[in-house]
Design goal:
The chain has 242 residues and is of the alpha/beta class. Helix content is 34%, strand content 15%. The chain has two domains: 50 residues, no CATH class; 189 residues, Rossmann fold (3-Layer(aba) Sandwich), CATH 3.40.50. The protein has a four-stranded parallel beta sheet, with helices on both faces. Strands 3-4 form a two-stranded antiparallel sheet. The protein binds zinc ion.
């Protein structure tokens, strides 16, 4: 095997069944498209090592926190990679959202969460809330991609996922191509708290795929702050467009 050392630092050699499975049903790197070795998951080792990572430490403010400044309940925020629409790494988000490979979100979130856990990012957090999408969008797509990201964090931390406390009631017109001011205006009245008792008094980790201006996340946090007593919020996104 070329890469018996996994990205999480564990030595993991693929078994015979895995090798046979990969031979019959090959997987491909979600960034460069190269066929994966049985020892690789979702990304080839060179794309994994070349990821445009966002540095995180508890002392300095990072780009994600900067976009969420002004949210009173915010405790901390982090993203895993920098997002650039012209980079091949944007393929990860296409696979996650549109090409029906949400497992890449679970795997990447688990990998990132294991590192953030070492740095104390999840200290005091009680539960995970995936960014909701509308009922119709979920029907059309077949899944909420943020739930898959939340699953990866749960695997790394053991934190429970709460899906039924907040829902998305409106779909704004597409954010892509809009200016910053238009995006902020566009993100009003998108969410509704359906069961405040599920989150009252808790430190909630809100999970999203990518943060571009922070408008949608701020809209969700505003609604939660207004309707849920004694709430604290942290945020994790796979990518940040800074
Ligand atoms: Zn690759």
């Amino acid at each position: 095997m070329k890469n018996p050392v996994c990205r999480d630092g564990q030595i993991r050699r693929p078994g015979l069944v895995r090798i046979l499975f990969e031979f019959l049903f090959p997987h491909y790197c979600k960034v460069c498209g190269r066929r994966l070795d049985p020892s690789e998951e979702e990304l080839c080792i060179s794309c994994f090592l070349g990821m445009p990572r966002v540095e995180y430490d508890m002392k300095s403010i990072n780009p994600t926190e900067r976009m969420l400044l002004g949210q009173h309940s915010l405790v901390r925020a982090a993203s895993l990679i920098h997002y650039d629409k012209d980079s091949t790494y944007s393929n990860i988000l296409f696979h996650l959202k549109y090409w029906r490979h949400p497992s890449v979100g679970t795997w990447l979130a688990r990998t990132g969460a294991m590192e953030l856990k070492e740095k104390g990012f999840f200290e005091g957090v009680d539960c995970i809330v995936p960014m909701p999408i509308t009922f119709w969008k979920e029907m059309k797509r077949g899944y909420n991609q943020c739930t898959y990201i939340a699953k990866g964090i749960r695997q790394a931390t053991g934190l429970p996922i709460i899906n039924n406390a907040v829902k998305r009631v409106n779909e704004h017109s597409k954010q892509a191509g809009l200016g910053k001011y238009q995006r902020w205006n566009n993100a009003q009245d998108l969410f509704q708290v359906t069961d405040p008792s599920l989150l009252a008094g808790k430190h909630v980790l809100v999970v999203d795929d990518v943060i571009t201006t922070g408008a949608t996340l701020c809209s969700l946090i505003d609604v939660m702050e207004a309707n849920i007593p004694n709430l604290r919020v942290s945020v994790f996104t796979l990518a940040v467009a800074d």
